[in-house]
Amino acid sequence: MSAYIDFSQPSLWISAATIVFNPTFWNVAAQSEYYNKTITKLFGGNPRAGCYALAVTIFSLGILRDFLYEKALAAQPAHPTLLNPLIHLSALPLFATGSTLVLTSMWALGVTGTYLGDYFGILMDAPVTSFPFNVSSAPMYHGSTLSFLATALWKGKPAGLLLTGLVAVAYSVARRWEDPFTEMIYRKRDEERREGKKGL
Ligand SMILES: *[C@@H]1O[C@H](CO)[C@@H](O)[C@H](O)[C@H]1NC(C)=O
User: Fold this and answer.
1) Quick check: 78 and 88 in contact, CB under 8 A?
2) Percentages helix, strand, coil for the chain, rounded to the nearest 5?
3) Dihedral class, residue 61 (left if φ above 0, else alpha if ψ from -120 to 50, else beta)
4) Which of 100, 134, 136 to mutate to test the pocket of ligand 1 (most atoms within 8 A of CB)?
5) Is 5 helix (H, G, I), strand (E, B) or coil?
6) Is residue 104 part of a domain?
7) CA distance 39 to 23
8) Which helix (H) or strand (E) is 143 found in, with range?
């Protein structure tokens, strides 16, 4: 398959770099906020303003990453097998599923829930268990990965499949950080609540 991926294209490496950079960036930023209130301090002690600023930053980095992915694919060759109409058209339901997972999870979580509000101390009352969280443990990540896959198949580009694999790996590494961390934050909150009740 490597004959069908042009590794000499700088755009391929730039796209790979942004795919790895984005989740790394938001995890470093969120950890720094949690331990040192770095972002809250930048916003005059207002955690909500800090979280919204982080949301805008992460969202913009996501748009840039998607743009650079499209640009990278444009410079890559297509594979005849992938140009098969069935494979080409399979991109449509995949893209619809991916977008649905991303948009409905944003809708269910809201801005601060989507963009790491828990690291700012902005917690939800209870974990969201409604759709799409009843069909996927990480609908935002699964949906985003599906959209990358759909784009690769739609354009018939093996390089897109490779970059989609990198997206999946980057998200799975991110979840190894985020999932235990989120769990810890909510466990602490629940303990504090229980102690608060005892004090009454
Ligand atoms: C998930 O919830 C939606 C409604 O919120 C429901 O229609 C769907 O059947 C549920 N799916 C599963 C697998 O429980």
Assistant:
1) no
2) 80, 0, 20
3) alpha
4) 134
5) coil
6) yes
7) 17
8) helix 139-155
Which among 69, 40, 75, 67 is positioned nearest to 152, based on CA atoms? 69
Q: Is 49 marked as binding a ligand?
A: no
Q: Whose CA is nearest to atom 14 of ligand 1?
A: 134
Domain for residue 141, yes or no?
Answer: yes
Question: How would you write the pLDDT of the chain (200 residues) with one tens digit per residue?
Answer: 458 999 999 999 999 999 999 999 999 999 999 999 999 999 999 999 999 999 999 999 999 999 999 999 999 999 999 999 999 999 999 999 999 999 999 999 999 999 999 999 999 888 889 999 999 999 999 999 999 999 999 999 999 999 999 999 999 999 999 999 989 998 998 898 888 766 55
Q: Which two tokens stand for residue 86?
A: 């069935």
Residue 2 lies in a domain: no
Task: Say how many Å lie between the CA of residue 7 and the centre of ligand 1.
Answer: 43
Residue 1 lies inside a defined structural domain of this protein: no
- The residue range of the domain holding 111 is 7-198
Q: Taking the mean position of all CA atoms in its chain, how far away is CA 6?
A: 26
- pTM of the model as a whole: 0.92
Domain count, the chain: 1
- DSSP letter, residue 76: S
